[in-house]
Amino acid sequence: MQVIIVAILFAILGVILGLLSPVTIPITYARYTAVALLAALDSIFGAFKAYIAGTFEPRVFFSGLITNMTLAGGLTYFGDKLGVDLSIAAIVAFGVRIFNNLGAIRRHYL
């Protein structure tokens, strides 16, 4: 339980620092950043679900995080080159997975 509390505190700290930071993302990279953040959220919620199920492995988490972010960015890039908005496919896929993971986490605590 201590790990969860520490993770939540650092997530809150990261959001606060991000909001207070003067860094802006150029509009050219905004879609890539949004899809990469969604992929990262998918990996984080999947890791949390695995943690409460007792099956969490850091190696699987980090490889999934890197793979998801790379795949989402690549899909968006190739979609831009083809003139097709393939980022929607990544958004839908990661969105469904996030909601499935959140549902499993909610059921665990109910």
Give an overview of the whole structure.
This protein has one domain (27-109). It contains four helices and no strands. It has helices at residues 2-20, 27-53, 58-82, 87-109.
List keywords for this structure.
110 residues, mainly alpha, globular
Briefly, what is this?
The chain has one domain. It is built from four helices and no strands.
**Count of DSSP-assigned helices:** 4
Largest sheet entry: none
**Shape annotation:** globular
Beta-strand percent range: under 5%
Termini gap: 16 Å
Please give the radius of gyration in angstroms.
16 Å
SS-based class: mainly alpha
Order of helices and strands: HHHH
Low-confidence stretches: none
What helical percentage do the residues reach? over 70%
Fold topology:
Layout: H1 2-20, H2 27-53, H3 58-82, H4 87-109
Helix pairs in contact: 2-3, 2-4, 3-4
